[in-house]
Structure formats: C-alpha cells, structure tokens
Amino acid sequence: MSDTVAASPAAPPRAATSRRPPSLAATGWSRGLVETKMFFREKDAVVFTFAFPIVLLAIFGSIFQGQLGDSPITVSQLYSAGLIGAGVMSVSFQNLGIGIAGDRDDGTLKRLAGTPLPRSAYFIGKIISVLVVAVLEIAILLTIGVLLYDLNLPSEVGRWVTFAWVFLLGITGSALLGVAVSSLPRSAKSASAVISLPFVVLQFISGVFIPFTEMPEWLMRIASFFPLKWMCQGFRSVFLGDAGAALEMTGSYELDRVALVLAAWVAGGLILCLTTFRWKSRRDG
C-alpha cells in the first residue's frame, strides 16, 4: 500500500494593504502647524511683527493727544482703529510676501513641489499661520487701545459682525496680494525692501497715521484704489461708531463700498496669484 501524502491546503493570498492618503484638510492643517511653529521660532521676526504697531501706537498716541475738532473722538482712538487695519495687512501682505519669496529663494518651494504634498496644502498652511498671528496682534492692539487710549469696544452685535466681515475680506485680499507680490523680488535679500516700501507708503496715505481728509486729493484717489484704506475705514466704523463718521471724507463710513472694494481685491488677488505665482526662482529658469 503506497503512502499518500495529503497536500496541505494553500494559504489564501494576503490582501494588499492600501493606505488611503491623508485628506487635503489634514495635510493643510499639518502644514499650518509647521508654518506657525517656524514663525514663532524666528525670535526677531516675532518681536518686529508684534512690537512695530505697538511702538507706533505708543509714539503717535503720546505725541498727538486731545480731541479731533468738535468730535468726541480722540486722536489716540483714531490711531488705535487705524493700526488694527495696518496690523492685519502687515501679517498678511507684508509677512506672507516676504516669507514666500524666501521659501522660493532657498529652494523650499521647489522641494515641496516635488513631494506628494498637495500644492494647495502649502497655501492652506500659510493662511492658518497668518490667521493665528493676525488674531494675536489684534488682541494685543485692542488691549492697549482699551487700557491706555480709551478705545471703546462695541456693545452691539451688528458692529462685531461688521468687524468679522471686514477682517475676513481684508485679510483674504491682503494675503492673496502678498502671494502675488512674492514673485516680484529677485531674491530673498531684496524681498524686504521691495515689499515693505509700498506698504509703508500705503500706511501714510490710507488714514493710518494721518487723517484721510487732511491729505491732498490726488493722494486720496491713489489710496482709494488699495484695500488698506477701506480696511481702516471699516474698522473705524466698528470702534469709533457714529461719532467718528463725521471724520470721514463723505461724512459716512460707506460700508457697502468697503465690502465691494475688499471683495474686488479678493477676486483680483486670486487672479494675480493664478497668473503670476512661480514655484521656482528666476535662476532656476
């Protein structure tokens, strides 16, 4: 009798393990944490970003005191409201433009473009970092304005709603403009001068340091083309109330026009980003 060897049943094939890639929201949030940590590790950038508007508020608020004509609004209150708008544009337009120019020059953008990371996750991360810094800066400026310069926080819900949409439209348009302008500097070394100079000029002609109605008409026309003037006007409507409306050029805050101009800059900034943004520096071709 021949021995029969029973063949053992073959093991079923192991199913191939497939890992689903993380979602865009997850990668964007992760990149946002990285961008925020990188910002706060740069001590000099942190000090300059937060200290600059505070120092300006302290200087102008101390030098120019008293009320504006027959208005109950003080000069310090006017500066406090205007510097909030300048602070929002500083962390979005200026910091973002300089930061992206640096990422392009040192090869960070080029390396990220060659990884599985979705390109949009990079911008989501930048936006998260900008929002965090902007909220902190506004909180600091409001605290100083309330404690030292009698800035009144609004008690009506409607004015806080106005603050919310002015902030969102303003920071979105400024951030998109910062992304677009990041392609102008030829290197990271020139980025600060190329981007900071027009921003400083805008602050002086947009009603941040000088009341808008005291400037020549041709400067007012130039300032009215850019978003900073309208952001400051929207924030003045929130924190100065009806008493401050008489200080505006038309005697009104023109919130409908504020919304229209800021929304136009959001749309225009997006078009500029899509048509001008470069992942490589000029020396890479």
Task: Describe the overall structure.
The chain is elongated. The termini are far apart. The chain has 285 residues and is an all-alpha fold. It has 11 helices and no strands. The chain crosses the membrane at residues 45-66, 78-102, 123-148, 160-181, 193-212, 258-277. Its main location: membrane. It is a multi-pass membrane protein.
Task: Write the topology of this structure.
Blueprint: H1 24-41, H2 43-63, H3 75-105, H4 108-113, H5 119-149, H6 157-181, H7 188-205, H8 217-223, H9 227-239, H10 241-245, H11 255-276
Helix pairs in contact: 1-5, 2-3, 2-5, 3-5, 3-6, 3-7, 3-9, 6-9, 6-11, 9-11
Q: Note the overall shape.
A: elongated
**Count of β-strands:** 0
Order of helical and strand elements: HHHHHHHHHHH
Structure classification: mainly alpha
Instruction: Work out the oligomeric state of the chains in this entry.
Output: single chain
Helical fraction equals 55-70%
Count of alpha/pi helices: 11
Work out the radius of gyration.
25 Å
What is the residue-mean pLDDT, rounded to a whole number?
A: 84
Number of domain units: 1
Low-pLDDT parts are 4-8
* CA-CA gap between termini: 82 Å
Largest sheet: none
- Share in β-strands: under 5%
